[in-house]
Amino acid sequence: MRALKIVPCVLLTLAAAASGQGSPPAPVPGNPSLAQQAEDAAERDSAIRATQAAGEARARAQEESRQNAALDAARETERAAAADLENALSTAQAMQEELFRIHQDPGAQNATTSLLAAPNPLSSDGWDHDPRIAAPAPSSRELPEEIFDRSNEVIAPGVWQNTETLRVIRLVLDADGDGKPELIRFLDRGTREPIRQEADRNYDGVLDSWRRYRDGELVSRVLDENDDGNPDVFETFRGGLLVVRELDRDDDGVRDVFYRYRGDSLFEEGHDADNDGVVDLLILYQDRRRVRAQEDVDRDGRMDLWTRYSTQNGSEEVTQIEHDRAGRGFADTFEYFQIQGGKTLLVRRERDINGDGQVDVVSFYAEGRLVRRQIAEAGLAPM
């Protein structure tokens, strides 16, 4: 009877245990389920991938834009180089035709001097002396003091560019008695040496020559060559020789021609063509012959044409001309000349098209005509 009572209890216990294994645990408030957590993680991963994809797309677009811009710049550079070369070739062709015309008609060369050389030195225009030779200081005419009217005067500082007060003897010569002196001399009272002289050289009643002396030696002379009352020639002397001669050729009050001397010879000649106070053409001499010249052709304040000379058979001949055609401040075109049949002819021209200091195009000429051209870089060839 006891055994029958124990078995039912055991079965009931096992059945209860078996029935408890299949039921889920009770949810804890504030703690999402595993499914919810997985869904949230998937959304976050998708958002990260979308952000990365957008960034990669932007990077690809920027890289493509940069590459396109680089290609456009390269194409533009090629087009510009080709255009420069086209212009250079057109210029060379025009130059070739002009030189050939000169070769065929020697008389036409006078009208095209600028193609072959800097201008010749300007003539003395009434100056009775070769401008390439330093003129001796002009002497004063010996005249007895008895023919002058004499007076003592005091010259204040600054009147004649003097720094101190000068006590002078004033000698006046009015030969025709019209009240307009032909000659006025000022002598130092103590030494009797000349200090200044004023003269009316053409006897028109107007003074046109002024001389200044130091220690009895002539140091400067100012002339009014065209007799309009305005000085237009300014000369400086040293050791009895001319060292500087400056001219105002257009009589506007601005000096525009300059001669400089060393020893007894001219070594530098300058011209200010537009009266801006800056020399536009400078010519250098050696042994009274031109050796170099430089010119600001476009008047922008920078030299852009350089010419070299050599002396052959006693005459000056152009051997080389350099141009700054692009306005970069340095030469980019180099032309070489030779004497052929008594004429100065172009034999070779070199061009630096892109301004890198290297010759890009070389043209060869025979009797003034283009015979061959070499292009250094294939990329510069006209399209």
Characteristic terms for this protein:
18 strands; alpha+beta; 2 helices; 18-stranded antiparallel β-sheet; 383 residues
Could you characterize what this model shows?
The chain is α+β, with helices and mostly antiparallel strands. It is built from two helices and 18 strands. It folds into two domains: 76-126 and 260-383, no CATH class; 137-239, no CATH class. The chain has helices spanning 2-20, 34-104, and strands at 149-155, 166-173, 183-188, 194-199, 209-214, 217-223, 233-238, 241-247, 257-262, 265-271, 281-286, 289-295, 305-312, 315-323, 333-340, 343-351, 361-366, 369-375.
Bin the strand percentage.
Answer: 25-35%
From the N-terminal CA to the C-terminal CA, the straight-line distance is 122 Å
Rg from C-alpha positions? Answer: 47 Å
Provide the succession of SSEs. HHEEEEEEEEEEEEEEEEEE
Shape estimate: elongated
What is the number of independent domains? 2
> Mean pLDDT, nearest integer?
81
Helix fraction bin: 10-25%
Low-confidence stretches: 1-22, 102-126
DSSP helical segment count: 2
The major beta sheet can be summarized as: 18 strands, antiparallel
- E-strand count: 18
Structural class: alpha+beta
